[in-house]
Design goal:
Elements lengths: L1 H23 L1 E4 L7 E6 L8 E4 L5 H9 L4 E4 L6 E7 L4 E5 L2 E4 L2 E2 L20 E4 L4 E5 L9 H4 L2 E2 L3 E10 L1
């Protein structure tokens, strides 16, 4: 009985520390889109090149991503978990998404070629575009992992979906 009480107290302590850490600005990335580890929210505007945490907009492409396990369930509208990506394009940037990859102002982004199928041989969403982003639009990508579920599959999002700018603290 004593072990179970100690275990319960340890779990309660960990949960309390996690909540306090989250309220203070700590965020843990447990996905492979970016390096695993601890990130911290910072008081900075979401600009091109920044890592951001965002709530995916409620849409069929994110519904399917959640069903397939590309994104987890969470507390964002639609029942999605917040995601972390880098802003690679913003207002005025010309974006082309094709079978070759994602181009921003004519430059091909590394690790941006879309896959036709996922690891389960299911067809991936086919977002294709050749457009200039408007005032409130950003394109979010991972330049770390070529398998990331990112803007090459769901396109630009409204900047209002961004919840915070992040800085890595300890990653591996």
């Amino acid at each position: 009985m004593r072990k179970s009480v100690k275990g319960l107290l340890l779990a309660l302590g960990f949960a309390t520390a996690s909540v306090i850490g989250a309220l203070a600005g700590a965020r843990v990335n447990s996905t492979r889109s970016l390096p695993l580890g601890l990130y911290w929210t910072v008081n900075a505007p979401p600009r091109k090149g920044a890592l951001v945490m965002f709530c995916p907009p409620k849409s069929p492409v994110f519904d399917e991503a959640k069903t397939r396990g590309y994104i987890d369930a969470g507390f964002c509208p639609g029942g999605y978990r917040q995601m972390i990506k880098k802003i690679v394009a913003a207002k005025g940037d010309h974006v082309t998404v094709s079978d070759k990859g994602v181009f921003v102002n004519g430059q091909l982004l590394g690790n941006s070629k879309p896959f036709a199928e996922d690891s389960g041989d299911r067809p991936m969403p086919h977002y294709r575009a050749d457009c200039t982003l408007e005032d409130n639009q950003v394109l979010l990508m991972s330049d770390y992992n070529p398998l990331s579920f990112d803007g090459r599959y769901f396109g630009p999002i409204n900047q209002a979906q961004i919840r915070s700018v992040l800085r890595p603290v300890f990653t591996w």
